[in-house]
Amino acid sequence: MKRVGISQEFFGGMRAMAPLTVAVIPIGLVFGAVAASKGLSSFEATLMSVLVFAGGSQFVAMDIWTHPASWGALAFSALLVNIRHVLMSASIGTKMPAFSGPAKYAAMLLLADEIWAMAEVRAGENRLTPAWYAGLAVPFYCVWVLASLAGAAAGAFLGDPEAIGLDFAFPAVFTVLVMGFWKGRDTGAVLAASATAAVLAHQFLPGVWYIAAGAAAGVAATLVTNRHQEACA
Fold it and tell me: Packing angle between helix 42-51 and helix 2-37, nearest 10 degrees?
């Protein structure tokens, strides 16, 4: 009976994640195509998705990719892009009492924006279990890797992603995720602060500092709105 329960949990997570798993396919295709256009082989592009598993930092890496690659610049850019994972893991980590130590570490290795968002929603409604989380993360990870491979292999045939509209897949997925967390005026204030800081940093600072600026402004705005709510309570 326990084995059946674990199976049901896994497939429950898989079903909940299915729309986002499908949505990540064009993003993986675009990444693979972009990587191929930068001179990476199909194996190299796929290996990057296997080891990094972070679409944002992978796209940024391709944006600044040179031959020979500047490993220091790539590492620093990846750090800036993925610094939000510190906040995401801290948040979801408090909602994992059912996870053993190794299971929690494995869950963090497979953490992505979409997986974090769905896990947070689940934790707010029901108990978050390792099997349900695995149903979210494992198929999503596999699809991302396979889509990257397909995109890299077919890069020459896909051509410019902007020409066929695939470049919009990335922001579209995150728009859906943000709307899933919409809680009225306070959410709007946080988004406005984050967007304003990111745009200003993009205009006046080189590199990918706009990502860190947007994240910092969003955290600050969240703290302000939370204190305002406590004061009014």
Answer: 140
